[in-house]
Amino acid sequence: MELTTEKTRNSSLTQVSKRKVTNVITYCHLPFQSKWLYIGTERGNVYTLNVESFVLSGYVIHWNKAIKISQKTHPGCVVHLSENPVDANKLLIAFETGTVVLWDLRNRAVEMRLENTEHVKSVSWHHDGKQLMCSHINGSLSTWNIKMPMKPITVVHPHLQPAGNKGKPELCKPIYKVEWKTVRRSDAYIIFTGGHPYEKTGKTSRLTVLQGNATTVLEMDSCIVDFVTLCESPWQNDFQEPYAVVVVLNNELVVVDLTTEGFPSFPNLYPMDLHESPVTFCTYLTDCSIDFIPALFSVGSKRKKHSGFSKKEWPISGGEWGTGSDNYSELIITGHADGSLKFWDASSVSLQFLYKLKSSKIFEQPKTENTDYQEDEPFAIEQIFLCSESRILCIAGASSHVVMFTFNQQETDCQVTVLEIPIVYEVDDDPECSLQPVSEQGTYSSAFEESAKQEPTAEYYVPLKVKSSSHKRHAGFQAELVCLTPWVDGEIPGHITALSVNSSYGLMAYGNECGLVVVDLIQKTCLLNMGTPDLYGSADPYRRVARSPKRNNTVAATDIRSLEHDSCCSPSPDQTTPTSLSDQSCLAGLFEKIDSSFSWSRSSSVSSLENVSAEVVQWLCFADSFSNKSDPTTSPSLWVGTSLGSILVILLTFPSDCDHRLTHPVIVSPSGTIYRLKESIVSLAFLDSNGALIPYPSGFWKDVDCNTKDSCDQATTIVDNISKNTNLLTPLPSEVCGNQFVVMVSEKQARVMSVPSQSCVSKANITDTSFVVCAKAVTLKSVGNVCLACFIANGNIVVYSLPSLRLLYEVHYLSVVDMRTIKTFCFSTDGHGLYLCSASEIQKFSISSSFSEILQDMLSTVFVPKDMPEAPRRGFFRGLFGGGPSTLDREGLFGERSGKASGSVAQHIPGNSSLEHVKAQTGSLAGELARARLVSILQRVPCCM
Questions:
Q1: Is CB count within 10 Å lower at the N or C end of the chain?
Q2: What region, left, alpha or beta, does residue 758 occupy, with left being phi > 0 and alpha being psi -120 to 50 degrees?
Q3: What are 115-133's pLDDT values in tens digits?
Q4: pLDDT tens readout for residues 845-861
Q5: In 162-252, at which residue ranges do the beta strands (DSSP E only) sit?
Q6: Predicted TM-score of the model (pTM)
Q7: Of 9, 7, 47, residue with least CA distance to 25
Q8: Closest CA relative to residue 653, chosen from 671, 679, 677
């Protein structure tokens, strides 16, 4: 039976789709508690569709039957359909050119016809069913009485200004929609959109409310898509008593209170502006501190202006919340193309907006005339890193800029520190010559210092400029440090591909397609800016090829299949030491296809190529670990993963005394330790000797007293955080530290190394025909230990045990057809994850079995069945004849008796009505009338005693 029903449905859909090009649907109307949908088309015909079976009926109202016989022109498309409020047998049909027809469904004839001089955009009934109002293309409203259809009762132009000096009135925009709602003890409401003069507004973003002589214009933030008036009475043939208007905008939902003076809007309880600006990056945290989300909500609510909102409760109700929940907080951060960041609380079954941060406010508007390669979205967010413990936030933008924010619950007016740090390297044309770094560690070359003091030139140019004057900064995340990447010798710097911050160390590191930068957040100085090849030192296994200095790095993105094909055509060995391979054409072709704006920045990461032109920094993380085989204890270090499958360890040497942290520099130097894997590095994690996940060292947030003179100096707070982590300055004994495991994941394989011995404990080939998009070591409650979760570009999710790398689970989750999925896919604690499944939808998932057990309790219901309110009282004969056709009558109108449907338009609906059935119905009706007449006679006969 299900198969047969599905075939019928598909057949009907196919028939409708065949007529889609030649007969476009322009308007639909579904009456209250009816299963028949009226469909108006561009050709002017009206069809009826059964919403239960999704089959067209043979009852069709043709346009040539609705117009006058003398009319020779086509009336246009159908712009409105509605039933008469007091008689459901009468269907109102409005055509675009101005013809409005009241069609008698039972008699299949026109009962009333009126002609407007202007084109019609919409129609609204009066509750008595005797009057109607039309909105027109010239910004006017006309009121008609169906008993006198020769001319309108009134014609008004609500927003037409008096004629000026030229004597010509202003032209007004069309009134796209109008609703006429009545009130029992007051003037009726006339609510509409549009109708304003062309010179005053460029978009339909105003809602007008007329009540008596009062006119109120409500300005919206974006264009109005549609609106619906909420009324206390659901019955159309009674006073509606409107109390609110629900307005759907392009970016949000607005509900206006009609019962309060000034018509304020209700505070929106639900986030609707996720897609206000396109999402370019997102981060998902499930291990943030308990008080962090309330702090974000507190600073976010302070910036909301509640004075203009209605004091009444949210007028829309329905549905029920789920009962189950997890015992941890979930935070989602979305980065957008306009440079804004939005923080969302995902702890419950709904997404609650917390706080919005606009990073573009600290910059001046860029001037596009200075360069031919200016970004279309210069402030677009491409990387986000948040330390929830210390509340330090760092973001990287499309203009190769990095901004560090600190959290403050008070307002400040301090200036922002700006560092201009170039990331380039030079390669001589002579392949025998070694690499020449542009600048030494911790210093800039004199050429850059001199050029930075001059006006921007083709040799040295900074695309963004930070506002120089101090300005008021609201409570929340406040910018403290901005790192800009200038153009050098006309070469566009690559996009930031990796970003990491350690609040315990007071350091920040970021890398792009050329090299690495390490910044001291306390002293606000650059400690290292070096090309990636320089990090190898004398152990560089590659012969670098010189690049064109004016290569345009902003190339177009390619589809996943091309990337998979190119990444699979160059195999590489599975050793920790490199070997040679002469295949260079594959790498060169793939680099032309890379979209450098992608956070993962795919490249052909072939570990055994001899000649390469660039090496992208793909992964960065700070850790207390063993850097060399001879290390007896752990020490602070920075681990760098590159697109060629290399993992480089950089030593961090801090001053021996905490008091010298503000004055003495931090020494940053390569350790010489190099690990090699197939393809680009995707993830790194550290486990202790028992296999437990080692959290990254972090400081703790400390509120700063803004009443003091140096309240804006966050260096003191960071120093306090560092002083709490004494192991950075005095390493612990080796017997306390023990051994560690380093989990290394690339696009092809995973490996677990034991340090400091640097021996391979286990390894696994994740995929041979695709590549790993995202990987993370997570702790699963259902398993009881740490696992490695990987998402592959072919749509599979695989889970391995750690440190043994035994395959635990593999399933095909989704088919990757959009690069948006790859850019936003991420895992979080306890096996949760999310990605952007469309331009305006975030999909959350979990691979935890314990979470799936409580999932049904967490789910909510959108609709809850409610009993219908009592219908208004009506007279006996009115209720019998004026209440509209019953279900049986509707079957008779649109069912078998309506005639055979056209083969190209509708399907025949089998019905059970027959002549005997109609006779029985007529006899029953006659009996009811006879009994009613008898009762009436008996009531008038006097009683005899």
A1: C
A2: left
A3: 999 999 999 999 999 999 9
A4: 888 877 777 777 777 77
A5: 175-183, 186-194, 206-211, 214-219, 224-231, 242-249
A6: 0.72
A7: 47
A8: 671
